[in-house]
Amino acid sequence: MIVIARRSIVDWLTIALALATVLLLWRFRKLQEPVLVVAAALVGLIAYPLLHH
């Protein structure tokens, strides 16, 4: 898992999403994975045009 994280977490947005995911899973233990995936996808769709203009 650490090797995957080193190659996947490369910028500040990815770090923020990873930390938010860990915090949400810690706070809401029964949070389902599809909810996290949809939330991360929405953040990505909003952030991509702002970061790659």
Can you give a write-up of this model?
The chain is an all-alpha fold and 53 residues long. It has one domain. The protein contains 3 helices and no strands. The N and C termini lie far apart (32 Å). The model has no long low-confidence stretch (mean pLDDT 84).
Brief descriptors of the model:
53 residues; mainly alpha
What's the topology here?
Layout: H1 2-8, H2 12-27, H3 33-51
Please give the domain count: 1
Task: Figure out the total of helices.
Answer: 3
What is the string of helix and strand elements?
HHH
Which sheet architecture does the biggest sheet show?
A: none
The percentage of residues in β strands lies in under 5%
* Poorly predicted spans: none
Number of strands: 0
- N-to-C CA distance: 32 Å
Choose one word for the global shape: globular
The helix fraction, in percent, is: over 70%
Mean pLDDT: 84
Taking all Cα atoms into account, the compactness measure Rg is 12 Å
How would you classify the helix and strand content by structural class? Answer: mainly alpha
